[in-house]
Amino acid sequence: MKIRVETGLDQLLADRARISRLAGARVGLLANPTTVDHTLEHAIDALAARGVELKRLFGPEHGVRAEAQDMESVSETRDPISGIPTVSLYGSTFESLQPSAEDLADLDIVIADIQDIGSRYYTYAYTIGLMMQACGEAGVEVWVLDRPNPITGVGMEGNIVRDEMRSFVGMQPLMTRHGMTLGELAHFFAKYCCWECEYEVIEMKGWRREMWFDETGLPWVMPSPNMPTLDTAIVYPGQCILEGTTLSEARGTTRPFELFGAPGLDAVRLRERMMAFNLPGVEYRLASFRPMFQKHANATCAGLQIHVTDRDVFESVAMSYAIISALLEQPGVMEWRTKAYEFVDDILAIDLLIGDVARREALEAGQNPVEVANAEDPMREEFLARRESCLLYK
C-alpha cells in the first residue's frame, strides 16, 4: 500500500533544522517497538544515522522492546539491542511511573514517540503526560511526535472517568474512546490537567480524522504484547473492561480481547442473549480456547469470538456492557476482580476501568446495558469543548 501518512517521526527525520538542534543537545527518547519510521527503522537507529546521540532511553509499560506482559514490573537498565542506558517508567510502585529529577538532570530534550490505540485505559498517554510534568519541573523540553489514532479520530464512546476513580487506567477526565491523537492529548494535558512543560508537538502530514490505521499506508507494529492487530484495537475500548472481572479476555492466546470466556460458561446461552441485543456491526462465534498464561491458564474456557462486520457503526463499549450484563445472569461464572489493579488495592478494578461506580451498579441491578453505556454524562459537554480546543487535524 502506498504511504499516505507521514508520522511525527517521519517529519522530524526530514527536518534538517530540528535534527541539527538535536545533534547539539543532550537527548532522551521515550520509546517502544512502535517508534519506527515508515520503513520500519527504529528512531534509535534513524537518529544515530543523522548524528543524534541518545543519552538515555525511557521505557513505558511493557518496556522499550515490549518484552513484558501487562502489569509486569519492568526493571531494565540498558536496551538489549542498542546498549543505551534505559530507565523503566513501569516498575513496582506508582512512583516508578514518572522519571526522577536525577533521570532528567543531564538532558536538554526528551522526545516522546509511542503509538497509542485511542482508549482511555491504555497507559502510554499517561506516561507521556507524567513525563511532561516531570520535565516541566526539571526544565527539560519535550517533543511529542504524533501518530494516528488507529481507531479514527472521530469515533467516541463511553463516559468520563470520575475524580474518585482516577488511576493509571484513567488519570485524566477522558472519554473511554476519546477520538484524539497523542499530540492532541499532550495539548489537553498541558491546558487542562496541569501537566505543564516547555513542549512541542511535531504533527503528522496527510492524516485525516476519519482514517482507520489500515487506511494510512503505515506498517502496523504491535504497541503491546496483547495488541497484535488493528482488529484487537477496534474491540479493545469495551473489552478491556473484562480485565475487571474473572473472565479471561484471552491473554495467553493469539486473539486477545476478540476471544473471551471462562470454564463453565454457557456459550450457547450467552450468544443467544448477545444476538437479542441486536447490536450493529458485530457477530459472535461460539468458541472454546485454552489460555497459556494469566486468567484460567491451561484450562479450557467456553465463550465467544467477536467478529466486527462494520467497524464504522460498531460500539465496543455497549457490546461489552451487554456481555457483562448477560453473564451476571449466569451465577458462579463471573466475579469482579478483587486483587490489586494498576497499583490500586482499595477500589474494584471494574470501577477503575468503567470510571463510574453508578454504571457498574446499574448493570448489577439488571438495567438495560446498552442504555447504561449510552446514558447521559454531565461531564461530557465540558470534555467535548476541551477536546475541540486541542484538535490539530480538522
UniProtKB/TrEMBL annotation:
Transmembrane segments: none
Organism superkingdom: Bacteria
Any one GO molecular function term: peptidoglycan beta-N-acetylmuramidase activity
Gene3D superfamilies, A to Z: 3.90.1150.140, Uncharacterised protein PF07075, DUF1343
Protein name (record): DUF1343 domain-containing protein
Protein source organism: Bradymonas sediminis
Lineage: Bacteria, Deltaproteobacteria, Bradymonadales, Bradymonadaceae, Bradymonas
